[in-house]
Amino acid sequence: MIKTEIAAARFADLESWSGSELIEGIIEGQFAAIAAVHAVRPLLSEAVEKATQRLEAGGRLIYLGAGTSGRIATQDAAELPPTFNWPYARAISLMAGGNGAFIEAVEGAEDSETAAPQALDHHGVGPNDVVIGLAASGRTPFTIAGLAHARKKGALTIGIHNNPGGQVGAVSEIDILLDTGAEILAGSTRMKAGTAQKAALNCISTGVMIALGYVYKGLMVEMRPTNEKLRIRAAEIVAAITGAKPEVAQTVLVQTDYSIKLAAIMIVQGLDLAAAESVLAQAGGNLRIAMDGRA
Fold it and tell me: Where are its TM segments located (predicted)?
């Protein structure tokens, strides 16, 4: 029995509920989703630790999914480059049905047992890679086949699913069951199950980026300032790190082509751009090491 597809007796007369009762029920489900994520903290920690080791060796984050799970995975992958300046080539999302399925459903695509292995081979999946597969049911053939294939190739495999006994977990090195139970709309896993999956991915990807040194004092020092709003934010970040006035931070940022890390080093250590680049390179790009002088 797939718990996420059960028509719970509690919601049998859902259409007769008042607006306030509906909202209360939906929000209650979101709390339950976070509780399910909270229950697997040790597994999420293990995922962060093991993924960090692979990515430090030059690996990639590769996501697998179909339908809602695939779209949630794609969102996580898409946010890594602008937030952490993580290379696009190292954040890959493989969706059942191809890129068109991100917007429109491709019926039957999730049933393919060959598409994911073929796509992984196309990208040359290997031992340094981290492959995260998501499927609310835990039994999506596309995701199961992809995870099993990636594991054979030596990649770290992380299976995220919402039903006990899901094969997605069984074929993965790290089996993360987010036991969210029945949905307020039977089988609508974009609800509780989807929220839990997104929260789990937030924990893993953000935890990994912090462990890799892409964050300094809780600030997004790798952020790409690609518009005016973000350029203002970059100046505020540099000012917060260095104690300089925002206008000074802005001037130095222009000199660095808006590298927050280089601007911070230049201001704090009184260096020119070339010297700051040398310091940061010696620190392996890690701003904390560069600022502490332990490069």
Answer: 199-216
Residue 293 DSSP SS3 = coil
Question: Is 104 among the residues known to form the active site?
Answer: no
- Reading the block at residue 52, the tokens are 């960090």
Percent of the chain at pLDDT exceeding 90:
84
- Among candidate residues 5, 46, 79, 173, the one labeled active-site is 79
Please report the sign of the dihedral spanned by the C-alpha atoms of residue 216, residue 218, residue 223, residue 227: negative
Phi, psi of 203, rounded to the nearest 5 degrees: -60, -45
Of the candidates 203, 205, 227, 218, the one whose C-alpha atom is nearest the C-alpha of residue 77 is 205
pLDDT at 206: 97
pLDDT band at 295 (very low <50, low <70, confident <90, very high): very low
Strand partners, 216: 219
Whether 226 has a pLDDT exceeding 50, the answer reads: yes
| Active site annotation includes 277 | no
H helices of the chain, in order, are 19-38, 41-56, 67-84, 115-122, 141-152, 167-170, 192-211, 228-242, 246-255, 260-269, 273-282, 287-292
User: Which domains are assigned to the chain?
Assistant: 3-211 (3.40.50.10490), 228-292 (1.10.8.1080)
pTM recorded for the entire structure: 0.92
